[in-house]
C-alpha cells in the first residue's frame, strides 16, 4: 500500500507547474496505451507466386505472430517462471518488487533494480520496437530513469484492465527479440530449432526463455556455455515453481542445447528471390503506386499473392539463359510474358539474362532492366504503330503498298544523309523486295521504304499517339526526352521524325510486351499487373489503386491487325527460328532490329500469352552485336528473327499446353478491305484526265508517272497503291506513254487430227436354253 501511494503521488501531481507537465505526459501515456491495447506489431509480409510458393519475405523485424493455441504451454511456463512468477496474481505491477526496486534506486540515485513484470516488459519493448521511430525515441524508451519506470507502471495497469492474462502473455511472446535477427517466439523456434512454436520441448523453451534477458549476449552460436547455464537457471526456477515435474526438469538440465548447426533465418527482400528478383522488385514498385508503401510492406504482415506463373517463369528464364548467357559481357536479354484479358493484364513471367544481385563482378545487377527505358530501340516492331494508325484512318490489310528501293520523305526530320536534301528523311531497303505488297505481306517481310512512305501519309503525330495508346506510356512522361520537361513523344512530334516507324529509340521492354497483350485483348489496354490480391494480417483483402483498363482501338482493328501479323512465323523474318524450335501453332509476330544492330527484339502473342524478347547492349558504351554466337563485334548482324525470336519461341512452346488452344481472332471486313472513304476507284483503262477527276472526287491527291506502254498515250495502266489508301493521301497514276507496240497474238495452234475409227466390238448373243 505504501508503494502504491508513493507511486501514485509521483505519477499524478495535482498542483504547480509540474502538474501541467504531468498532464501532458499523461496524455502521451494514454496515446501509447491505446496503441498497446490495439497491439499491432511489425510482422513479415510474404510474397508468393500463383501456386502459393514464396518468392520473397519483406520485413523490418523478422516476426510471425501466432495465436495462443499455437504456442507450446511449456514455453509459457518457462517464460513466466524466469521473468514473472507472480504473473497470474498481480494486476500488472508486482508491488513488492516495485517497492524494493524503488527504495534501492532512490538511495543509489539511479536505476539499479528493475522489478519489472511481464506487463511492464511488454510496455517497454512495445515502445522500443513499435512506437519509437527515431534514435532519440528509442533511447527514451529504455532510459534508466524513474520517470520511464513510472510511465511503464501506469501503462501496465491500464493494459490489465483491457486484456486477459493469456492475451498479454501471448503478445509478449510474439513481440520480444531472441537474437540473430529473430523477433517473436514463432520465428525464434524456427531460427534455432527448425520447429514451430507449438512444438517446442521444455529444454528448447527454457533456452529461449533465458535468452530474453539479453538476446545479444546470450547467443548460442557465440556463447554456448553462457546460454546453457542460463537455460539451466530457467529449469531450476521451474523445479522450484512446479515441483510435480521436478524430476523431468532435472533430466532436461543434462541435455545439450540441440540448436541447428547455424541459424535458420529467412532471407530478406527481393535480393534473395533469385531469378524472381526483377519481378519482386517490380511488384513492390507497383504496390507502392497502388497505395501500399515499402515501409508498410516491411511491417504489415501482408500476404501478397502475385500473378507469376512458375511454369512460364521457369521456361522463359531457361530459354533466355540458353540464348544469352548470364556471363556475357556487355549484352543482356529481357523477356516478359503477359496474359491478355479484358479486365486485367496479368504478368506471368519476367526474366533477364542477368542475375538479380549486387555482385557486378559476377554480372549481377539490381537495375530494373525489364521495366525501364533501356537499349537502342525495338526496330521494325514500331511499324505496327504506323500500320494501326493507318488502319484507323481507313487502310485495309489487303491493300497494296508501294515498295520503292529508295524513298525520300519530304518535310520530315532525320535528314542529312549523303545526297538527302534538308528537311527530308531518306531511307532505303536492306534487301530487294517486290513491289507492290499487301499490308500483311509488308508486315512479314518488313521493307523500310513502304512504312516510311506510309508514316508520311498517316502522319507522325497519329503514329506516336497510337504507340502511346497501345502501351508505350513512358514516351509520354514529362522529361522523358532528356530536354527539360518535354516528353519524348512531344519531341518526336515536334521534329516530325519519320524514323519513328523504324523504332530507333530506347524502349521499356515491359511496355512493349504489354502492347502485344493490348492487341491480343482486342484493343483493350490494362496496366501490366503483377498482383492478384493482397491480404492483411486479419485476413481481409486490401483495396489497391490501379489504372483502369481502356479500349484504346476498336476490337475489329486489333483483331484484324493480329491476323495481319500472323505471317511472320510462317514465311516472314522469324520463320527460320520458328522451324528451329518446332513451332506449329498460330502466332502473331513481328521482328525488329535497329540500323546499327545495337539492339534487337521479337514481339509475339497468342490468345493466351503475349510478350517481347529484347536483346541490347547494357554497358555504358554499347556497341554492335553479332549473332551465332551472340557477342559484341565491330560490324553487327543481329536481327530480331535470330536470337530474340528463338528465345521467344523456345520459352513459350513448352507451356502452350497449360493454356487454351491457340487460334486467331475473327477479322473485321472493314479493316481487311478498308473503310469506304479509303477505297481507290478502279481507273484502269481511263484517260488520264478522267482518272484524275475520279480520284480527286474520291478525296485523294494525284501524282502522275508516265510508263512505257502499249495502250494509247495518256491511258491509265494502274494506280499505286491500289485497293485502299489513307484518305487524302497521294495516289500515283501510272500512265502509258504509248511507246510500246502491242505484241501480235500468238498463232493459233493447228487442229488436232481426228482419232482413228475402231471397228465395232461384237456383242455375244445368248443362246436359248
CATH fold-level name of the largest domain: Beta-lactamase
Number of contiguous helices: 27
The strand count comes to 26
The CATH fourth-level homologous superfamily of the largest domain: DD-peptidase/beta-lactamase superfamily
Q: Which CATH architecture of the largest domain would you pick? A: 3-Layer(aba) Sandwich
The gross shape turns out to be: elongated
Q: Structural class of the helix and strand makeup?
A: alpha+beta
Distance between the termini: 147 Å
CATH class of the largest domain, anyone?
Alpha Beta
* Helical percentage: 25-40%
Beta-strand content: 5-15%
Radius of gyration, whole Å: 39 Å
- The average pLDDT score comes to 90
Characterize the largest beta sheet: strand count, sense, and whether it forms a barrel.
Answer: 6 strands, mixed
Q: Strand order within the widest sheet?
A: 16-8-7-21-20-19
How many domains make up the 3D coordinates?
Answer: 4
The poorly predicted ranges are 9-25, 758-769
Question: Can you tell me about this structure?
Answer:
The protein is α+β, with helices and mostly antiparallel strands. It has four domains: 67-254, Penicillin binding protein transpeptidase fold (Orthogonal Bundle), CATH 1.10.3810.10; 306-379 and 504-665, Beta-lactamase (3-Layer(aba) Sandwich), CATH 3.40.710; 381-501, Beta-lactamase; 676-736, Trypsin Inhibitor V, Chain A (2-Layer Sandwich), CATH 3.30.10.20. It is 38% helix and 15% strand. The chain is built from 27 helices and 26 strands. The strands form nine sheets. The protein has a six-stranded mixed β-sheet with strand order 16-8-7-21-20-19, sandwiched between helices. It has a four-stranded mixed β-sheet with strand order 2-1-6-17. Strand 1 (45-48) and strand 2 form a beta hairpin. The longest helix is centred in the N-terminal third of the chain and has 23 residues, at 16-38.
